[in-house]
Amino acid sequence: MLFVALQELELNFNRLSEMNLQLRKEKAEAAAQLGARSAEKAALEAQLATLKVDAGKLEVTFKDKLASCERMSAATVSMLARRPPAAPFQPPPVYTPSGKRS
Length: 102
What we know:
The protein has 1 helix and no strands.
């Protein structure tokens, strides 16, 4: 009976050892994946920061262009408002073969 109990203890110890080795291997794999994901996250955060800076620059550029267009539009409207009214359109005279105007 003591021998059976000893064998059982030995088997359980061997199973625990195998499970421990497997868990250590899984832990190492998880740590490697975490490192890779952390590096990927850092790269994406840097890329996002660059994109935000570029977007800010574009926004300023577009606002400047919009303001310029609005100023040009206002100047054009102002010039058209100051222009004297045009004379009504009169078609040019048409000459007939007999030399008379119609």
